[in-house]
Amino acid sequence: MVVFRFKLTRSVKAVLMIALLCYLSIVLVGIAAIMQKPTFRRTVNNGNFPATGRPAALVGLKHTDSCSTSSGNKTEEQKTAKPKTAPCPKTIASLTKYSKWFRERYQPGIKLFLDRDDTKHYDSLSASVLPFGFKKQNLTVMSQILQHKDFANPPVHGLAGRQSCIRCAVVGCGGILNGSGAGKEIDGHDYVFRVNKALTSGRFANDVGKRTTFYTFYPESQHLNDVEDKNVLAFFTMFKAYDADYALNMMNGEKPPKYLKKGKKYGVRTPVVTPTRVKFVHPNFFFYVFKTFLDSKAYRPTTGALVVFLALHICDEVTIYGFGYDPRFTMHYYDTKFVVHTRASTGVHDVDNERKLWHKLHEEGAIKLFQRDM
Ligand SMILES: *[C@@H]1O[C@H](CO)[C@@H](O)[C@H](O)[C@H]1NC(C)=O
Ligand SMILES: *[C@@H]1O[C@H](CO)[C@@H](O)[C@H](O)[C@H]1NC(C)=O
Ligand SMILES: *[C@@H]1O[C@H](CO)[C@@H](O)[C@H](O)[C@H]1NC(C)=O
């Protein structure tokens, strides 16, 4: 009896001890969880893209002054966007945890679009000429654009704010899309980015889809008439001095000025655009893409390259279609010409460098590059 009671007491003690240890460990785990900062946190930041806690090193980017959010004042986009709480398991920004190459380049805080606030930053914006800055530009014209009554600069994610796990398709003009039947897949994304003449009217819908969320253009490449979504947000890129004059006329609903090239005057099509739905790509963003990802090769990035990087800062997942200058296909899905893809064939762009970049981004897991057999 005595022995039994002794044993019972010991086992009760043991049980109590175990219970106490369990309790203590739960408390400790709890405290640890509270103290530990989340390794990946979603914040709303300039263009409402996700940001990591880890700052990305910027290689060779000079004028970052107006890119940061350090001025206590929020941009118009930040004011209207609401942070989302639902986490996305894997995002482009979270790739910085796994890829050194990407971490050293990707700058989540970069400003994507110009806003009224930029009229205060002409000093820092005037280090380079367009597309990288406003040097030699008529700053009165720039102010007339940015302070225009119709420059509403709507947030990219709409008034409802950023949703989580945004899947995006960026559609280039590569002949690889001809006969691909990828249209439904493209339209199935949350956002569809299109550029220049890479549009959908009629017989191409089956291969390239119909929807357009964001359309990016410059004066000579403007094909807004062929954009089927009337709610599209138009991203205007300024590559040269003329483009600023064009932009002001566009905001005023006027015909574009004549384009002077080598002493000759050229007419430019009037954009069919709602001025309140226009946004202007920030010169610092051009510079960042060029310096950081294209290693300053060629004279400037293609509009397509620029748009892929806009998508990398707006979305959680990006698939690019019709990129890569695959020599097995025609130059464009909308024409029948086979062209040897060289710098000469594309004007001022370094085609090989861009092709390598798409494959690199694909390998690193930042984008999915649409590829197919013949
Ligand atoms: C923020 O905006 C207010 C009012 O427009 C201005 O007075 C202030 O200087 C701004 N602050 C910064 C840090 O830009
Ligand atoms: C700059 O633009 C304004 C407004 O269009 C114009 O009045 C002015 O003459 C221009 N200045 C120069 C130096 O071209
Ligand atoms: C697309 O591919 C088909 C079949 O290979 C070809 O006949 C046609 O010329 C190509 N281009 C266009 C614009 O249809």
UniProtKB/TrEMBL annotation:
Region (Disordered): 64-86
Membrane topology, record value: Single-pass type II membrane protein
Locations listed in the record: Golgi apparatus membrane
Pathways involved: Protein modification; protein glycosylation
Keywords: Disulfide bond, Glycoprotein, Glycosyltransferase, Golgi apparatus, Membrane, Signal-anchor, Transferase, Transmembrane, Transmembrane helix
SS bond list: 168-315
GO cellular component: a single term: Golgi membrane
Top-level taxon in the UniProt lineage: Eukaryota
Main localisation: Golgi
GO MF terms held by the record: alpha-N-acetylgalactosaminide alpha-2,6-sialyltransferase activity
InterPro entries: Glyco_trans_29 (IPR001675), GT29-like_sf (IPR038578), Sialyl_trans (IPR012163)
Pfam families with a match to the protein in the record: Glyco_transf_29
Transmembrane segments annotated in the record for this chain: 12-35
EC number: 2.4.3.3
Reactions accelerated catalytically: a 3-O-[N-acetyl-alpha-neuraminyl-(2->3)-beta-D-galactosyl-(1->3)-N-acetyl-alpha-D-galactosaminyl]-L-threonyl-[protein] + CMP-N-acetyl-beta-neuraminate = a 3-O-{alpha-Neu5Ac-(2->3)-beta-D-Gal-(1->3)-[alpha-Neu5Ac-(2->6)]-alpha-D-GalNAc}-L-threonyl-[protein] + CMP + H(+); a beta-D-galactosyl-(1->3)-N-acetyl-alpha-D-galactosaminyl derivative + CMP-N-acetyl-beta-neuraminate = a beta-D-galactosyl-(1->3)-[N-acetyl-alpha-neuraminyl-(2->6)]-N-acetyl-alpha-D-galactosaminyl derivative + CMP + H(+); a 3-O-[N-acetyl-alpha-D-galactosaminyl]-L-threonyl-[protein] + CMP-N-acetyl-beta-neuraminate = a 3-O-[N-acetyl-alpha-neuraminosyl-(2->6)-N-acetyl-alpha-D-galactosaminyl]-L-threonyl-[protein] + CMP + H(+)
Record PANTHER family: ALPHA-N-ACETYLGALACTOSAMINIDE ALPHA-2,6-SIALYLTRANSFERASE 1-LIKE (PTHR45941:SF8), ALPHA-N-ACETYLGALACTOSAMINIDE ALPHA-2,6-SIALYLTRANSFERASE 2-LIKE-RELATED (PTHR45941)
Family the entry assigns: Belongs to the glycosyltransferase 29 family.
Record-given protein name: alpha-N-acetylgalactosaminide alpha-2,6-sialyltransferase
Gene that produces this protein: LOC110973339
